[in-house]
Amino acid sequence: MSKTQLSKSLGLRLVVVLVIGNIIGSGVYKKVAPMIAELHSSGWVLICWILAGIISLFGALCNAEVAGLLADTGGEYVYYQKIYNRFFAFLFGWSLFTVIQTAAISALAYVFAESLNSVVHLPQLIPAWSNISIAGLFYPFADLNTKLIAIILIIILTWINTKGVKAGASVSTAILLLVFGSIFIIIAFGLSAKTADIHRIQIATTDNSSITLSAVFTAMLAAFWGYQGWASAGFIGGEIKDAKRNLPKGIVIGTITIIILYLLSNTTYLSLLSVPQMQEVYSAGNKIAAIEAVRSFWGNNGALFISVLIFITTLGCCNATILSSCRTYFAMATEGLFFKKAALLNNNKAPANSLIYQCVWACILVLSGTFDQLTDMIIFAVFIYYGATTLGVFILRKKMPDTPRPYKVWGYPVVPAIVIIFCILLLINTVFSRPREAAIGVALMLTGVPMYWLFKKRMKVVQ
Global pTM? Predict the structure, then answer.
């Protein structure tokens, strides 16, 4: 076997594990509070979770058709070469590296560190430096104790994943079983607690304001962070057994499972805490809604329990994201469109150099911003490509009409059209509601334009 040949070792079960592992992270615990702050209505929060889940499922169905047709290591990077062209494919891969996947790793590691801090109370480091900023936008030394823990986590998980894809997937499986069991315990005890009241969930707003379309889209930006990651299994398509069948199945099964889990967990939180209490959690800045919800019926021991659960969950999601994301950079490097050392595998058939590049940039992003800054930036960037993949369903039906498809998207052409229209609306709304995050995301993605020509020039010199 060559030094650039990955082994096919993952069956359907591990594909489902990696899909769920890439999705279930901090959003299930943390994003309900900013959604309440935007909407002032617990009922509308659940509606936004449902709408975001439906759009995510529709997107997953569209992705499943494309993945079933073109499955290979690199996911959308490979798909876009056949749907569009090499330049667009590179821009996607570069966007993963500069913002989408590396910022996701950073955000997950950040929440892990926050949860650990709530349990062991880490001492502040160099507080005098906390107000030092770069252009008034980035405060690298603010919450330095939390950020250093996040960086250490990224480094450790990167090292584990250099041991091979099955080692990383096994870690994700063990963590996922623990997380699912714990979340369902919280749901069962939370909904049956004396302090729970399902009637707290109402459509009416607490300030008697009307719900605007912009507010719904902005709240869904938070919900989409919770669902982000379902397409990541495509990045390891070259390591999946019978990928053209198992990859689409894994994506759909994993996404439906997450939608059900999110609705149950958020119903639990909203039954335990009122809208004003949720708004107080959001205003505090350093609180997590799920912790306060569990504290309300289990006291401080319950808060400790869910704090441990959150850092285990984010540990698992961070691990799954590290495992899958680096495969795209490996695929790019084998074609000469990334740093050439990223194309080499170590003795465990793992893309170790690709993992290291990813690790370094993710650690830098940890220092660059807050959790919500990172997640809003990610969602803006990723929906550009969700729309592009969905448009690919239409293009491939015309380009390759007679090619056998293991899976065809349900509801064609209506379902893909809904996803594309929604992506456009979300992007427009984000430009106006989160202009800074949108601008930073676009700027990082566009650094791929000069890098593409630089890599192309180097390829010509080598040839």
Answer: 0.78
